[in-house]
Amino acid sequence: MKIGVIGASGYAGGELLRLLSKHPVFEVTVITAHSHAGDQILSVHPQLQSYGQRRFQSNEEVNFIDLDLVFLALPHGESAAIVAKIPSSVKVVDLGADFRLSDKSAWEKYYGGNHAGAWIYGLPELSPGHKNAIAQETRVANPGCYATSISLGIAPAIGFVDATDIVVVAASGTTGAGRNAKINLIASEVMGSLTSYKFGGIHQHTPEIEQAITTLSKDKAKISFTPILAPMPRGILSTITAKLTSDVSLEKLHEKFKAYYSEHPFVHVLPIGEMPKTSSVIGTNIVLMQIAIDENTNRLVVSVAIDNLGKGAAGQAIQNANIIAGIDETTGLMHDGIGA
């Protein structure tokens, strides 16, 4: 299949190119970057030696009818304009937020600008049958990185917890903030320091998480979410708590979590007592999670680790592309992490 990557100069775009370089079915024939059009790919992503002397094209040069599938790795709010130029026969996976939210008012509150509409939400493990629903579509909204870790961390517990009282503190590496130069992201500012940001429930992934969890719950989900900038390039560690509404043992809940993801090769519920760590998932599409019960407050506690550029972006996008292309979802993604 002939593949286009639109907006490939960012961190997620670069990770897409890295993963696609070894994909046995997808052939990357178009690679664009608006501000880097004409530049060698290696000048931006020197790690991508397999792309040799290839150069970025401009978006205007692309003849989308020649492609089978397109990945959009553009800043939020820019995908809709490109989608208008893509024939309906071409499959699309959008890594941006443009088509994630069904609620127009939520889009306007957290992102601003015109609401482009909603596509199927590309989190295959979210609920039983959701992967099959994705397979029936041709256009998929790839989830946000925080939203992926948090939604997967709480989904198996719906029915055992109060979905209107979910509290999350999650730390992310600096690549989650994009590649634009910002003083607060330079090494001198970040190394040896932790800081919260978008403090007080204003992070743009909040309505996305609430939307995903509400589809599983009889109540409208409510999330109190505090993100933290961590002094590392990539990885997310989310800690999720929710009030238990039934008398259930840790062992029973642990078995429920394992059963919930038993048919999903990328989600691993660790043995009780073993904790997820971000270094174990870097470079992969893997999710690691662990649960506990805080008996003092009668709250479920879930720890989830993902790579924000893997399962949180490029890896998940390829997983979704595999699904809508009718091939095994693990194609090109079954490899071990980089480690320390």
Automatic annotation (TrEMBL):
<keyword id="KW-0521">NADP</keyword>
<dbReference type="Pfam" id="PF22698">
    <property type="entry name" value="Semialdhyde_dhC_1"/>
</dbReference>
<keyword id="KW-0560">Oxidoreductase</keyword>
<keyword id="KW-0028">Amino-acid biosynthesis</keyword>
<dbReference type="InterPro" id="IPR000706">
    <property type="entry name" value="AGPR_type-1"/>
</dbReference>
<feature type="domain" description="Semialdehyde dehydrogenase NAD-binding">
    <location>
        <begin position="2"/>
        <end position="134"/>
    </location>
</feature>
<protein>
    <recommendedName>
        <fullName>N-acetyl-gamma-glutamyl-phosphate reductase</fullName>
        <ecNumber>1.2.1.38</ecNumber>
    </recommendedName>
</protein>
<dbReference type="InterPro" id="IPR050085">
    <property type="entry name" value="AGPR"/>
</dbReference>
<dbReference type="GO" id="GO:0070401">
    <property type="term" value="F:NADP+ binding"/>
</dbReference>
<dbReference type="GO" id="GO:0006526">
    <property type="term" value="P:L-arginine biosynthetic process"/>
</dbReference>
<dbReference type="GO" id="GO:0051287">
    <property type="term" value="F:NAD binding"/>
</dbReference>
<dbReference type="InterPro" id="IPR036291">
    <property type="entry name" value="NAD(P)-bd_dom_sf"/>
</dbReference>
<dbReference type="InterPro" id="IPR000534">
    <property type="entry name" value="Semialdehyde_DH_NAD-bd"/>
</dbReference>
<dbReference type="InterPro" id="IPR058924">
    <property type="entry name" value="AGPR_dimerisation_dom"/>
</dbReference>
<keyword id="KW-0055">Arginine biosynthesis</keyword>
<dbReference type="Pfam" id="PF01118">
    <property type="entry name" value="Semialdhyde_dh"/>
</dbReference>
<comment type="pathway">
    <text>Amino-acid biosynthesis; L-arginine biosynthesis; N(2)-acetyl-L-ornithine from L-glutamate: step 3/4.</text>
</comment>
<dbReference type="InterPro" id="IPR023013">
    <property type="entry name" value="AGPR_AS"/>
</dbReference>
<dbReference type="GO" id="GO:0003942">
    <property type="term" value="F:N-acetyl-gamma-glutamyl-phosphate reductase activity"/>
</dbReference>
